[in-house]
UniProtKB/TrEMBL annotation:
EC identifiers of the protein: 3.4.19.1
Alphabetized GO MF terms: omega peptidase activity; serine-type endopeptidase activity
Organism: Rhabdornis inornatus
Source superkingdom: Eukaryota
Gene3D superfamilies associated with the record: alpha/beta hydrolase, TolB, C-terminal domain
Protein name: Acylamino-acid-releasing enzyme
């Protein structure tokens, strides 16, 4: 059998090369301009991100393009100049007319000062406002995340709306003796101002937060900047039990529409959890009255106002249950106050029909110019496609059915100019543009590549569908199938019969779509075949598939992966004596199950922040509801798991099979992981060590669940690749 053993230097060179491919994050179309010959053109501003290994950070850069069009098709498009790095921008947003731009910027403090935040307004050729938000001290840090955060221009372009942390009263020790600082005393009495006087004994009060990646988010408030008056006001009238976010101005700028999340009795983790009780609200700016616009027993997110200001579409799920599922598309009519369901959840995916909505968010700009159609991207089994939805009839049309197979995402649509991102497992992200055809003719869309990305050589890939054997069918949801994406090296010494790395995804209710993924591509270039398994319970296959998994974790998902591995080893020329597992989160849960339940199949294992023992995780994670839901138990905030429930959680956990594990295990843990706390991985590490199983643990400070820090990601790849090469000899 040909052996591959590149030295560490060769591996690091390969990783350096592949990690330089940038990701495409945002796009913004400028206003239409007319040439002296009558032709129309506009600028396209794009932002990209790239790993800088030398600086050990992700950098952002921008690039501009010009698009000449006649309203029906693109006549010419191309880049305008080279790219340049963007420094310290947290948020940016162009005004509706395209003549102004708002930027939230962080500025390092001088000497011992803390970092500051400035809100800037730019016109086309200069900065016209620079407001020190930190010095104004009306609120805490501005939110720049995509969960709560927003930066929204009023339609009149005179005000800006954003979300920030509520200002906390100053606190001091009971034994504080120094005099109050200058400038804080009342002119009449000489005593400290009431609002500035520190509160004794409040220094160490615990403030709940919103969990993984949102640990600095506790009590968000909506804030408005009056640009002309340089004044900031914190909106009042929002009920105390709600945390507001994802806000925008109502038609006529009379008030603000926002999503409010319930945070009583306590906050549950919100990142990747589209099942948290929330609703759409309107707060009036004059009277401060807050009005409910949607049902208050659901989970809602991504509200988007139509160009004519008449309709708001938003996504909706049931509360609790699987953290991600097949959502509904709802529409609220601003003037009739009537809500309709545009698209329901889809029980089963069927080719030629709409697969259902599985997206984390609608595009920021998703409406067509007719204020009737919207654009969205969603998983369709193991690929991601773009659809246009007629909100009046509920009809859907794929805009990528005849385009290359892979992963498509909508970046923006403006005046029916559509901007999208496309990638495949062997091709990094590229920039595509098109004109949205008129209603009824959407399938005739013509995509044009504006920024190409050369395919990475040496990688072949394909999607295969698998039907579980009859004995593994779900009693309630029979007939479900699932997919796997197989990548294999097309050149090199192992191309004829490569070793296999099996990668189940996390979640468990997520999905591998056939897009660019750094780790699988790099492993394939090293000489491994990589099997990405979308077991039953994955998104993109219909709500029945999602619903089939809770209560069956540790069995159904494990059997699906093992069945897939055995089938692929039978049908493909792969080295069945050299098979390894790599997985993170629930993928790590499955990897640890598989090396315990099927120890003869696997020769090595690498896991990142794995779930190891659901029973010990339930009291430490930011998502305790996950532990009960996936075990098949009901979740109630006030209920404590009883002994029978804890037994059931333990019974479904991989720690149960630790006595059978023989494969060497490499563990990678994020010190700041709130979702699957590192105590889980430590529990497994100690269990393996006491049983004499070869194990190694990597501990990454400053990293959370995703282990996405540039340094941790690079070090993780190197250690993973060297571990696999060493133990698959």
């Amino acid at each position: 059998v040909p052996q591959v053993q590149p030295r560490a230097e060769e591996l690091s060179e390969l990783y350096r090369e592949l990690s330089q491919h940038p990701g495409l994050s945002t796009a913004c179309l400028g206003p239409d301009l007319t040439t002296q010959y009558g032709g129309k053109y506009c600028s396209l501003y794009t932002e990209w991100s790239q790993r800088d290994l030398a600086r050990a950070e992700n950098i952002k850069f921008c690039r501009q393009y010009l698009i000449f069009h006649d309203g029906a098709s693109i006549v010419y498009s191309g880049p305008a100049g080279t790219c340049s790095e963007i420094k310290d921008e947290l948020l940016s947003r162009e005004s509706p007319s395209g003549t102004l731009k708002a930027v939230l910027r962080k500025v390092p403090g001088k000497e011992k000062e803390k970092e500051k935040q400035f809100l800037e307004v730019w016109d086309q050729n200069r900065k016209v406002k620079s407001i020190d938000l930190t010095a104004l001290d009306k609120h805490g840090s501005v939110y720049d995340d995509d969960q709560f955060g927003c930066l929204a221009w009023s339609h009149s372009e005179t005000h800006l709306l954003y979300v920030a942390e509520k200002k906390r009263p100053k606190a001091e020790s009971f034994f504080q003796s120094k005099a109050p600082e200058l400038g804080t005393s009342d002119e009449d009495t000489g005593h400290p101002k009431k609002e500035d006087a520190p509160i004794k004994g409040e220094q160490f009060v615990y403030h709940e937060d919103w969990g993984e990646t949102l640990s600095t988010r506790s009590v968000p408030v909506l804030c408005v900047l009056d640009i002309e008056g340089n004044s900031i006001s914190v909106l009042e009238g929002i009920p105390e039990h709600l945390s507001p976010g994802q806000a925008f101005w109502s038609p006529e700028d009379t008030g603000v529409v926002f999503v409010g999340w319930w945070h009583e009795p306590f906050r549950l983790g919100l990142r990747h959890c589209t099942n948290r009780r929330s609703a759409l609200f309107y707060v009036d700016l004059t009277g401060g009255k807050c009005e409910l616009l949607s049902e208050d027993t659901r989970a809602v997110w991504s509200p988007r106002l139509s160009p004519d200001g008449c309709r708001i579409v938003y996504l909706e799920n049931n509360v609790l249950g699987p953290h991600q599922q097949c959502g509904r598309l709802r529409m609220y009519d601003w003037y009739t106050k009537h809500t309709t369901t545009v698209l329901e959840a889809v029980p089963r995916q069927a080719w030629g029909a709409f697969p259902g909505i599985y997206c984390g968010a609608l595009p920021g700009m998703c409406w067509a110019a007719d204020s009737r159609r919207i654009l969205l991207d969603t998983a369709q089994r193991s690929q991601q496609d773009v659809f246009v939805v007629d909100t009046a009839t509920g009809t859907t049309t794929s805009l990528t059915a005849d385009a290359p197979q892979g992963s498509w995402s909508v970046l923006t649509i403006d005046r029916d100019l559509l901007v999208a991102r496309f990638s495949t497992p062997s091709c990094p992200p590229m920039l595509k543009v098109a004109v949205l055809p008129t209603a009824g003719c959407e399938a005739q869309i013509q995509w044009i590549c504006l920024q190409d990305a050369p395919a990475v050589p040496g990688i072949n890939w394909g999607i295969r569908t698998l039907q579980p054997p009859p004995e593994q069918e779900h009693p309630q949801y029979g007939g479900l199938d699932f997919d796997a994406i197989l990548m294999r090296p097309s050149e090199g010494p192992t191309a004829q019969k490569p070793p296999l790395v099996v990668m189940p995804h996390g979640g468990p209710h997520t999905v591998f779509t056939a897009g660019w993924m750094l780790y699988p591509a790099a492993l394939c270039r090293v000489g491994f075949a990589v099997l990405l398994v979308n077991y039953r319970g994955s998104l993109g296959f219909g709500q029945d598939s999602v619903a089939s998994l809770p209560g069956n974790v540790g069995t159904q998902d494990v059997c699906d992966v093992q069945f897939c591995v055995e089938r692929v080893l039978q049908e493909e020329t792969l080295d069945a004596s050299r098979v390894a597992l790599v997985g993170g989160s629930h993928g790590g849960f499955l990897a640890c199950h598989l090396i315990g339940q099927f120890p003869d199949t696997y020769r090595a294992c690498v896991v990142r922040n794995p779930v190891v023992n659901i029973a010990s995780m339930v009291t430490t994670t930011d998502i305790p509801d996950w532990c009960l839901t996936e075990t098949g138990l009901p979740y109630k905030p006030d209920a404590l798991p009883d002994p029978a429930q804890l037994t059931e959680m333990l019974h479904k956990s991989p720690i149960r099979y630790v006595d059978q594990v023989r494969a060497p295990v490499l563990l990678m843990l994020g010190e700041d992981d709130r979702r699957v706390p590192p105590k889980q991985g430590l529990e497994y590490y100690r269990a393996l060590k006491t049983r004499g199983v070869l194990t190694r643990l990597l501990w990454y400070p400053g990293n959370n669940h995703a282990l996405a820090g540039v340094e941790a990601e690079a070090d993780g790849f190197m250690n993973m690749a060297l571990w696999l090469l060493k133990h698959l000899q």
